[in-house]
Amino acid sequence: MHTSVQLLSDAPAQLLPARELMAFTLASHIILVPLGVALPLITLVMHGIGLRRKDATALLLARRWSAVMAVQFAVGVVTGTVLSFEFGLLWPGLMGRWGDVFGIGFGVEAWAFFLEAVLIAIYLYGWRRLKPRTHFLLGLPLPATALLGAFGILAANSWMNTPRGFSLDADGNPVDVDVWKAIFTPMFGPQYWHFVVAMLLTAGYVVAGVYAVGWLRGRRDHYHRLGFAVPFTLAAIATPVQFVLGDSIARSVFQEQPVKFAAMEIVWKTDTRVPEYIFGRLHEDGTVTGGIRIPLLDSFLAGFSADTEVVGLSSVPADERPTAVQATIAHWAFDIMVFIGSGLALLALWYGLVWLRHRRAPASKWFYGSAACAGVASVVAVECGWIASEVARQPWIVYQNMRVADAVTATRSTTLWIMLGVVVVVYVFVFGSLLAVLLKMRTRWRLADAGAAASARAPEEDTPYGPRAPVPAGDASAGGGPTRPGDRP
């Protein structure tokens, strides 16, 4: 405990509020990221199914999801812009010294963001205005631009974890920058694919969860069955892939950032035959209390052998490693992520076995109840993955090259606390507005479907292409109204 107190007392006063502000905005923004990265792909898959099978319900779902995609993107612009400013305002030491090395990633992300905005606008405009095939083809670049944006951000973050592509002059400043080496660092591949697949399975479970709730409430028509099946199937396929990628990135951390790995696994002393702790708490003297201790497992997981040597936190000075509290936080976040991932894998297995045997989704309420929870659980897993990765890297903002305390702004701590309060209030308003808009859209769609049912036609019979089916007079309040192209949500 004395070591942690000493380190905290030596830190600048503005470090804590700067960290809290950055953590809050990142944690808020990351809620939107899965839909931003993966919803375009899920929507295009549904769109393709609609065109191939001439299924108007699939086209209707794709159109509605594209509207959600646009609203989510608009809010993501706000939260992403705040983060961009915070990098410069809160961490001038990082951007001033190292911006020329890793800043290319942010540039790529900015261009991808711009292209995605244009493509989303074209895709939304194209419903009822373009030929079906032309409209679909114009939407195909959307997933690629979303992946390009992720490429830029993950390139910057992986560089912070394993900085490469530069030399240091006599004053310790980076020179001779090699852009390609700075982008494609040892951690880039494992981080990027782990992130992309995580976004796909998270978005899939989130979207499917909406229709799972509908199933539990008795809505079991073709619209809800299809709305559940497509995103859930994509997520179920991605889940076992994510387990392989998760193992790969853990081994990469073991090789490239051994102290970070020690923090995530709360390993204190460098040794072989190291046990694995499921949860548990690390203390300043290196002891671990609580949790479940499994002998030899940590060494085996790290190198497929109980004789694998695992570097411990005590192998480096106290000011070059996370504190015991930080290591415990990272360890719990990592374990929660793995626990949720294991649950999702079992859910995907349940779905797959029933599908292979009966060619249909499970009919159990327990399954759909679990599926409804899977969306929230997967978002929690994403948050925990970010916490584990960033907290376990402390005290480095650029691993083994710059400490967080050396990068922080000189702005007074009081000002930063006020900024945090303002940002919290603004974000509550922004996310409240997002929720209100989504609920309003849901209400309009239900009224439209009710109006279609009252006029003796199923909602899926009104395709998003071509003229709408006629709606009897007086049905405007039920989603009827004018039949101009593009007037239905």
TrEMBL record:
Stored InterPro entries: Cyt-d_ubiquinol_oxidase_su_1 (IPR002585)
Pfam family name, one: Cyt_bd_oxida_I
Molecular function in Gene Ontology: electron transfer activity; heme binding; metal ion binding; oxidoreductase activity, acting on diphenols and related substances as donors, oxygen as acceptor
GO CC list: cytochrome complex; plasma membrane
Chief location category: membrane
Coiled-coil stretches: none
Membrane-topology descriptor: Multi-pass membrane protein
Subcellular location: Cell membrane
Region (Disordered): 454-489
Transmembrane segments: 21-46, 67-89, 101-124, 136-156, 192-214, 226-245, 329-354, 366-388, 416-439
Gene Ontology BP annotations: aerobic electron transport chain
Keywords: Cell membrane, Electron transport, Heme, Iron, Membrane, Metal-binding, Transmembrane, Transmembrane helix, Transport
Highest taxon, organism lineage: Bacteria
Family: Belongs to the cytochrome ubiquinol oxidase subunit 1 family.
UniProt name for this protein: Cytochrome ubiquinol oxidase subunit I
Species of the source: Streptomyces fructofermentans
